[in-house]
Specification:
heterodimer; A: 328 residues; alpha/beta; 8-stranded mixed β-sheet; 4-stranded antiparallel β-sheet; 11 helices; 12 strands; globular; B: 341 residues; 13 helices
């Protein structure tokens, strides 16, 4: 994996992406306000790497993933993928581009049709993108099941006959079916027990090497993120607060929020006693986010400037970008 | 915390089974443990291990039918809870033993304000007037760290954030100063920064009130940071029972070891995670011997034939595994002989 990143070819570039959801209200159902789920973020993903987005509920990590796939129509911004701006594509073009962009969701049961057999589910994916001629589909599906560690007999069975871990493998097989370039894993292992989660994480890593996949891995579990990522992006309330390679983010976190987040996780290690930064209060509402730096209401190191001026995402060291007045 | 090890709760050989059309599911299949005054016992296990059913059994909250506590005893301050009438149980629940659940939104009544719900619990168990109970409810909210509690007490659950709802649940659970608090995945639905706040709160309140806590969780990190002792459950049985610190430095049961190895760690670099092969057996179709044997790398013939007992192997450690019994070496010799023939 590391070798692929050294080439540093950008696969996907997100520019000033905004995703506002309108809130309807009042007598005539007018738009009274907006939830600013993602508010002006820019980043890129290198080919062959795993970029993780971490953050707490409501930080906009899933919205970012959905915006890239245009499952929700973003408010503004650009998403460049292989020389095309995804947001300017028509429906038909977008559909064919989705062949290269696949997604694995958190709850595999909710994302598999309970009335279709596994063969039908995977066959549908192949039929829509028309990647394999009809006659060869069955053997392709069997091959796919093999890749994710399921037996060929699974083909004629229904989703309810499988365990959570197996269902997630089916979700992975479906994403793989069309030979994608980028797979967005939205909390893909969060619903699984640790012993099963470990199996699925190992599988994802193996498949990445085997098929030269790029992952955008969305998760709230920093242990999992540390295991799978090359680079990590931390979001808070619709903004990117820090992006860096895995080593720097876990060993030298710079943003106070990242530091608090890391210190909040209970670690079963008697050797490593850590100082805990206990944040007070809750995450503010994304409808009316605080002015200045969005984290200033909970930041233990808040200064006057933080309340009025939003910090920009700036390069602090070579592979490290952070948005904080204290650091710059 | 540990002046006298005074036992407050003793569970002996508890069995809770579910009788369904598909057969009998032995969700809790003979577990025993003790809880001392003021200590925190962690119960860990994966889904289906029986940890939540254990906690519901302690308060006799098992839906019946299909569930039934089919054997064992639960001694609370020396008296068997299983012999109590429903009326006597109601006086104990929420008063001497109380419980908090994973999802506070489903445990709170959506149409009553937070303050009213806490006051109701107080009035049910203590002879207090409406006004006094309300004031006490506000005091409890202040104690669990809710800002402007007078205002928040009047709000309904949907007006509160997830972390605040869980604080309301804790306020309600502790309002009558229970001697035992059962917390079933209290922080699983919360974000990590909020989880850290809630765990810190439970620890502080426990110290102030001297409450014994049973913390049910799937998160080994949480166990390490909050518990004194820990019980690891697998398929309705307790496989290891030891000091919380011990389990990370010196795990004994192959399942515990497997579980620790599967955990992606924040403090370690691992290229590949070591996994436990296979999946948990179906509760309707348990293996004849040790229920972990089909997934265990060390399993020998005896493991498939007989269930090992939970035996002491040190002053604070009990484990249910044939590997730690005298039979193990004999079994090895026997297998070698069979191999020779």
């Amino acid at each position: 994996m590391g070798a692929a990143v050294e080439g540093k070819k950008v696969l996907l570039k997100v520019d000033q992406l905004k995703q506002y959801f309108p809130i309807k209200g009042g007598f005539f159902g007018r738009t009274v306000n907006h939830v600013k789920a993602v508010d002006d973020i820019s980043f890129h993903i290198y080919q062959g790497e795993t970029l993780s987005i971490v953050g707490e509920s409501g930080c906009g990590k899933s919205t970012t993933g959905r915006a890239i796939l245009r499952l929700d129509e973003p408010t503004s911004g650009h998403i460049h993928f292989q020389g095309k701006d995804l947001l300017s594509l028509g429906r038909k073009e977008m559909r064919s581009t989705r062949k290269d962009l696949q997604v694995i969701f958190q709850d595999p049961f909710a994302s598999l049709n309970p009335r279709q057999t596994i063969g039908q589910i995977l066959g549908e994916a192949l039929a829509i993108q028309n990647v394999v001629p009809k006659g060869h589909r069955r053997s392709r599906i069997e091959e796919l099941l093999g890749h994710v560690g399921l037996r060929p007999e699974a083909l004629d069975r229904y989703p309810h006959e499988f365990s959570g871990g197996q269902r997630q493998r089916i979700g992975i097989a479906r994403a793989l079916a069309v030979d994608p370039k980028l797979i967005i894993c939205d909390e893909a292992v969060s619903a699984l027990d640790v012993s099963i989660q470990a199996q699925v994480l190992n599988l994802l890593k193996t498949l990445q090497r085997q098929f030269e996949l790029t992952f955008l891995f969305i998760s709230h579990d920093l242990g999992v993120v540390r295991h799978i990522s090359d680079r990590v992006m931390v979001m808070y309330l619709g903004k990117i607060v820090e992006i860096a390679d895995k080593k720097s983010i876990f060993e030298q976190p710079q943003h106070p929020y990242t530091r608090a987040l890391l210190s909040a996780i209970p670690v079963p290690n008697p050797v490593q006693e850590r100082e805990r930064i206990l944040l007070t209060g809750d995450v503010p509402s994304p409808i009316d986010p605080p002015g200045g730096c969005r984290f200033h209401t909970r930041c233990p190191f808040v200064m006057d400037i933080c309340k009025t001026k939003a910090p920009e995402l700036k390069r602090s060291t070579q592979n490290h970008q952070v948005a904080c007045h204290i650091v710059s | 915390m540990k002046q006298v090890d005074e036992t407050i709760l003793e569970v002996k050989n508890l069995h809770t089974h579910f009788f369904t059309d598909e057969g009998t599911s032995k969700a809790v299949n003979g577990i025993s443990f003790t809880l001392n005054k003021g200590e925190t016992l962690g119960i860990v296990g994966e889904s289906g291990s029986g940890k939540s059913i254990t906690s519901l059994s302690l308060l006799r909250l098992i839906p019946s039918p299909p569930g039934k506590i089919t054997g064992g005893s639960i001694l609370f301050k020396g008296e068997d809870l299983l012999a109590k009438t429903e009326k006597q149980m109601r006086a104990i629940r929420g008063n001497e033993i109380s419980m908090i659940f994973q999802e506070p939104m489903t445990s709170l009544n959506p149409v009553y304000s937070a303050g009213e719900q806490i006051a109701e619990a107080i009035r049910l168990h203590q002879k207090l007037g409406k006004k006094e109970a309300w004031n006490k409810a506000v005091d409890m909210l202040r104690l669990v760290g809710i800002p402007s509690p007078e205002k928040r007490a009047k709000q309904e659950p949907h007006e509160l954030s997830g972390g605040m709802r869980q604080r309301v649940m804790i306020a309600m659970a502790l309002a009558c100063h229970p001697e035992v608090l059962i917390a079933d995945e209290p922080t699983t639905a919360l974000d990590v920064t909020i989880q850290a706040q809630i765990l810190e709160l439970i620890k502080t309140l426990q110290k102030d009130f001297g409450t014994a806590v049973i913390l049910i969780t799937h998160d080994l990190g949480v166990v390490y940071e909050t518990c004194d002792r820990v019980a690891v459950m697998y398929a309705g049985k307790m496989v290891e029972y030891t000091l919380a610190k011990e389990i990370f430095t010196n795990p004994k049961h192959p399942y515990t070891i497997g579980l620790l190895n599967s955990l992606p760690r924040l403090d370690l670099d691992q290229e590949e995670l070591t996994t436990i092969p296979g999946t948990v057996p179906s509760p309707y179709d348990m293996p004849k011997g040790c229920s972990f044997a089909p997934r265990c790398a060390h399993a020998r013939r005896i493991c498939e034939q007989a269930v090992p007992d939970l035996e002491s192997i040190g002053p604070d450690t009990k484990v249910s595994c044939w590997m730690y019994t005298p039979q193990w070496e004999k079994e090895y010799e026997a297998e070698k002989k069979v191999g020779v023939q």
